[in-house]
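Re: the request from the purification team.
They wanted to know what the chain is likely to look like in 3D before they choose a buffer screen. I agreed to run a prediction and write the result into the notebook, where they can find it.
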Amino acid sequence: MYSNSQSADADQLITDHAPLVKRLAYHLIGRLPASVLVDDLIQAGMIGLLDAARQYDAKQGASFETYATIRVRGAMIDELRRNDWAPKSVHKKSRDVDAAVKAIEARTGTDAKDSEIAEEMGISLDDYYHILQDTNSARLFSLDEVGHTDESLINTIPDQAGLPLDGLTDDRFRDSLAEAITKLPEREQMVLSMYYDNELNLREIGEVLGVSESRISQILSQSHARLRSRLTDWLPSESS
């Protein structure tokens, strides 16, 4: 049971941080299809904020905004997962890319190149790039994260790359993910860092690297595929 003062404190936290929910919702909605309604995200986020206000313990050290951002963000992602809009064919093609990358790198011991992956899959390079584009569109993109550290990067990538969020509580998974990131090709590491840590959008990263926005999208998607292929022991089994 909550005392009257605790209830009043929770109500004040909710009032003060309601704009945070809207900010996170609008940041996310711009990268999702029109079928996803911002009001649904806001509603889910407010439930997350309510939960955060009730459970927040200042003695744990984190500020309420940090804690609330995690809970609100998680509530929105849960809402999207309950209403997965990506066609099954997109998920299957994503797994096909993962398998091709894993096969090539196991065979050659080097990073799989775009042309090699396309050849392994028996498709044209253009078709491969289309798959990367579709896969990237079917993933959740980064939300506002508090801080711009490697820890933020480690905590955020699993959502986007299709890796298990539950694994983040396992130090072995976190170590494996961190190591896998350091072994990515230099350009992919750079794109991940600019996207997740510096929160640049695809267009801005393209301007920095002198390539198109669509090419950055492909690089981002390919880095996710490479991470999944190298962390298959942590992935849940999926049916096609």
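For the purification team: Residues 4-82 form a domain with the Rna Polymerase Sigma Factor; Chain: A fold (CATH 1.10.1740.10).
Please add any questions underneath this entry.
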